[in-house]
Amino acid sequence: MTIDAWAQHPTARFIGQEMFATLRRWTGGVIPTEEIPLDLTVAAMDAGGVDQAMLSAWHGPDGSLIGNDEVAAWIAKAPGRFHGIASVDLRKPMAGVRELRRRVQDDGFKGLRVLPWLWETPPTDRRFYPLYAACVELGVPFCTQVGHTGPLRPSEPGRPIPYIDQVALDFPELTIVCGHVGYPWTEEMIAVARKHENVVIDTSAYTTERLPAELITYLKSGSGRHRVLFGSNYPMIFPKHALEGLDDLGLDEETRELYLDGNARRVFGL
After folding, report:
1. What is the pLDDT of residues 121-137, one digit of tens each?
2. pTM, 2 dp
3. H helices of the chain, where?
4. d(CA 66, CA 59)
5. Is the backbone peptide bond immediately before 37 cis, with ω within 30 degrees of 0?
6. What is d(CA 152, CA 170) in angstroms, rounded to the nearest whole number?
7. Residue 73: its pLDDT value, please?
8. How confident is the model over 23-43, as pLDDT tens digits?
């Protein structure tokens, strides 16, 4: 089994964002430029050997880019292939708490994702804290991005230290899934994951051949093998491309299984 910890099915509102121009340039234009059928997303998963994907909603200051209702509808259309990750309006934390509760309790969503860079504010902002408490109460992880931002937004909110470190200190029961490996602060990200047992890293937005050497070393370590999850960031990177070269990492059988499947099952309660 392989579970993709970070994926999106792109809406026209999402893929039409000017901020993704840099990603189109870096990827040579492989990112879709218009809305695509759900069948094509499922086919991309099949081509990469991905059995299930954590399908994320997106909400930013200008509104919903991928709605929770849309994610719920896609899950219903492809039974067994997707699990929902909700997103909410950070400007209205209590409305966000209610929305998260509804999505987890009624629709079976498995987590919350809010991107600090999209709001141009760090994850230690007071508006995040009711959402963290709700995640703990509901038993779901908070998913976010660490490291620099490929889209045309400031990168500072993605620093693991001090931001993720402080959140983990304030909410030791909160599971925090840190996507995009933290580059260029990967060593900081690994240090935070070593320090806090509920902080994990997903490899979304990076192909296997581009994973930082220090993260591969951590993945092979005794504790690190339980703290790193595979993610693609589809459609920015297709799963098959993200996984090319995996055999070359020399992972033992247990580490490989945890990386591709076991850690995601534990973190998301699958």
Report:
1. 999 999 999 999 999 99
2. 0.95
3. 12-15, 21-26, 38-47, 68-77, 93-107, 116-119, 129-138, 165-170, 186-195, 213-219, 239-243, 253-257, 263-268
4. 7
5. no
6. 30
7. 98
8. 656 666 566 666 789 999 999
Integer Cα distance of 71 and 1 in angstroms: 22
CA separation for the pair 211, 224 (Å, rounded): 14
pLDDT at 232 over 80: yes
Is the preceding omega at residue 122 within 30 degrees of 0, hence cis? no
The token pair at 58 is 């997106």
- In terms of CATH, what superfamily is 3-268? Metal-dependent hydrolases (3.20.20.140)
HEC readout, 33-68: CCCCCHHHHHHHHHHCCCCEEEEECEEECCEEEECH
Place of tokens 């990112």: 31
Instruction: Report yes or no: 108 and 141 within 8 Å, Cβ to Cβ.
Output: no
Q: At a CB cut-off of 8 Å and minimum separation 6, what does 204 contact?
A: 5, 6, 179, 180, 231, 232, 233, 237
- 52: β partners: 3
